[in-house]
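Researcher: Following up on the earlier apo prediction. This time include the ligand. It's acetylphosphate, with the SMILES given after the sequence.
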Amino acid sequence: MKILVLNAGSSSHKCCLYTIKGAIPESPATPLWEAQLDWHAPNHAALVVKTAAGEQREEDLSSVTRADALSHLLETLWQGETQAIQNLQEIDVVGHRVVHGGQAYQASVRVTDEVKDAIATLSPLAPTHNPAHLEGIEIIERLLGQVPQVAVFDTAFHSQMPAAAAIYPGPYDWIEQGIRRYGFHGISHQYCTQRAFQILGRTVERLIVCHLGNGASLTAVKNGQSINTTMGYTPLDGLMMGTRSGAVDPGILIHLMRQGHTADQLDRLLNKESGLKGISGISHDLRKIEDAIVSDQPASKRGASLTAIANGSERAKLARDIYLHRLKSCLGEMLVSLGGLDALVFTAGIGEHSASIRAETCEALAFLGLQIDLAQNDSSPVDQDIARANSTARVLVIKTQEDWAIAQACYEHL
Ligand SMILES: Nc1ncnc2c1ncn2[C@@H]1O[C@H](COP(=O)(O)OP(=O)(O)O)[C@@H](O)[C@H]1O
Ligand SMILES: CC(=O)OP(=O)(O)O
Ligand SMILES: [Mg+2]
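Model: Understood. Below is the ligand-bound prediction.
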């Protein structure tokens, strides 16, 4: 069976082709072909195409729309030197990550017109994601006609959260209007939970998954179920992110609206111009922010007042400091929801690759007796336990494989 997976994130668009012979394996298979668009600006992306043989090709795409870039990416499946397949009819099923499934979808479904309408209706709540998923579904319809398509929702894993965690303390009417915490990155949180149990060789009662990518969220997982998470009605709540603010005092929004800001302006401000990018003024990308931080700043500058912070390096340092402060604060919330900790998982771009963010986060939990092996933490671990033998909780670095989880859901649907 050939399964094509499309995973549109806020800074990237990832696609994979898996070939499954016989029963689907429990551990992730290596894709036959992988391609990724990394968006540098709304009309400028880098395309990276990889084959199972390890060949890699890069292309710069400028002045392109998102739909054209995705069509071009998909052409590399059967054209050029990669040629993972001879013709499109070989594909049996296409799976899509869909960020917002609202109240209606608590598990993956076959895509129908009704499902497409629901994804479109939910677009204002996930404006950076749902429109891209719909575009992906429609491009596949154009290329492949009637091939079965499956939508796998980021919200599904959180759909059974306890009411006290899911319901906002606003007016009671909000519940009927569907204004509640949905939570996102559920495909990744669920995959990492299962993978953590596989790596440890046992299930654990109290687990926190830190999904730290361009979008970021934490989930408290009790006996394999999501019981609390930092993202909410939309993927804007919770942690500081690449370009998103995360939770801010809602009074700020009332103030800005009274000053004349429109809903669209606030949307742009909070979704695209805040977070690491907004504070640093440099980039949404933590790597660029860390490059900009001058490590040997004179001590006199370190306590600089907020208004005096003007140069790039100081703004970059402030962005990273706020990022860690918010991460630790939200971790405290998850920790208390669980009543303790048996295992902590780091995943996604920052969680998988930033040894310093992992080390500083774990340092804040040292009072619990949590200890990591610093040399192992620095050794680019993948799917490894980096806690010391005497640590009170295990600490795992897991490569998130949302695409593989989507492929498994497709297999089950067929
Ligand atoms: N080596 C690294 N060090 C620090 N941060 C990294 C590194 N590699 C990737 N990142 C971070 O990961 C982010 C992308 O995460 P990813 O999970 O791929 O994003 P998306 O949310 O689009 O799926 C980048 O913007 C960058 O901040
Ligand atoms: C839900 C979300 O924020 O996804 P991503 O991190 O892929 O942007
Ligand atoms: Mg992602």
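Model: The mean pLDDT is 93.
Researcher: Noted. I'll compare it with the apo version next.
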